[in-house]
Amino acid sequence: MYKAADTLLLFGATGDLAKRMLLPSLCALHADGLLAEDLKIIGTARSEMDDAAFRNFAREALEQFLPAERRGGMAEFLNRLSYQSLDATTLDGFKALATKVGEPKTGLAIFLSTAPSLFEPTIKGLQHAGLDGENVRMCLEKPLGTDLATSCAINDAVASAFPEDRIFRIDHYLGKETVQNILALRFANVLFEPIWNSNYIDHVQVTVAETVGLEGRVAFYDDAGALRDMVQNHMLQLVAMLAMEPPTSFDATAIRDEKVKVLRALRKVSAAETVTGQYRSGAISGEAVRGYDDELGKDSGTETFTAIKAHVDNWRWKGVPFYLRTGKRLPERVTEILVQFRSVPHSIFDGAGAASMMQPNQLLIGIQPEENITLSLMAKVPGLDQDGTRLRSVPLDIAMPDAFVGAHRRIAYERLLLDLMKGDQTLFVRRDEVEAQWQWVDAIRSVWEAEGVTPKPYPAGTWGPNAAIALAERDGVSWHDE
């Protein structure tokens, strides 16, 4: 068990992630009194600036991306910040960086938010400067490679300086409150765990829908596509948390042991169990938007949408399909999980209104933009009925802001940065998880290449190609689009 770090070193400190997420998250933690009083934060990047200029950069980022009510003590927070410019491609500047860092009393946490091509030279530079000691832990921001081979190369480079128990791989979805609530929902309520299996669950849907297009990520996204950008990391982590066996304790090793078992149990997917698409011109919220090729400025075979019918081949989930769907330029921004339970084996309610209204229960877990949990239950419609008991599905809602009045809606990185500094790996991804995810995704890409699968066009503002609807409807399933 490590002591809490008293120094945080941010690589890529002038980048988009630092501006939108990391600096606002750290300031919010400071405002809530969750940062150690002696914690100092050092930013480093190629940009030439001094401490004062970096503080001004941070102030502008906070004013733009952090709500005013969460900026308490912003001046004191800015005083924690300092900066050291660095070209990570050479060893020349790392000694000066080490001097700026000094000698942390309890520990140094390093957050590496740079292009993957800089990971290996950065690790060598840290070793050269002696910033790889036993009190140093390393946090890696995705993407961690483009396939299994490149991911292994990155992990090998990091492992040359840091053992696995000091490596923290970020998947920011794991920092979202409702994602963490999946574990609480399953393992803190006797209501759900006994029925969380193929005897009672018909299927599971996971949807990650975006309304945006390329949004300045042109080069990265065209090389990645929807499968590698969303499915390989975020969506497979959601599947692992939904499908994992009960861990022996709420412990990083126990939880990650169970997640990797799920990832290794994923059945290889056939081409008929996948759909790929690419958006064309259309309308989002009443505004005309261009097609992907037009935004990109050239023809491309990259998928901006994919739907997959997946299976977890183990005792608990045998025969239960997991329908995964993600895409850009869809009608709304939403991330949600639908757990569809089976119908009751026999309905005792007869009469004109009852049988036709019987619906199986559903559990809907909303992750973004709204965090909520809704369980649909069958209930009797009030009234005196001459034609039999009338039933209707009614929602039992747990809206997180209502259930926990006064609690802030936190940025996902707040939890992850806090855990990084504490040394808690529970919400970070282990190497064997990453490699199991890549093995499954690489197999899908190999099938697409072998069978000549190309993206089907779909108009922006729709829920993807018609083939995605057919993928589910062949099994009598409808996507949850409401």
Report on this model:
- This protein is an alpha/beta fold.
- It has two domains: 7-141, Rossmann fold, CATH 3.40.50.720; 174-411 and 424-473, Dihydrodipicolinate Reductase, domain 2.
- The chain is 35% helix and 21% strand.
- It is built from 15 helices and 17 strands.
- It has helices at residues 16-31, 51-65, 74-79, 94-101, 119-128, 148-159, 177-187, 218-243, 252-264, 292-296, 354-357, 400-403, 412-422, 431-450, 466-473; strands at 7-11, 40-45, 81-85, 108-112, 136-140, 167-169, 201-209, 274-280, 282-284, 287-289, 305-311, 321-327, 334-341, 362-368, 372-380, 391-399, 456-459.
- The strands form three sheets. It has a nine-stranded mixed beta sheet, sandwiched between helices.
- α1 packs across α2.
Rg measurement, Å: 24 Å
Average per-residue pLDDT, rounded, comes to 90
The low-confidence parts are: none
* Strand arrangement in the largest pleated sheet: 16-15-14-13-7-12-11-8-17
CATH topology of the largest domain: Dihydrodipicolinate Reductase, domain 2
Number of strands: 17
Under the CATH scheme, the architecture of the largest domain is: 2-Layer Sandwich
The number of helical segments is 15
In CATH, the homologous superfamily of the largest domain goes by the name Dihydrodipicolinate Reductase, domain 2
Structural class: alpha/beta
In total, how many domains does the architecture comprise? Answer: 2
How much strand? 15-25%
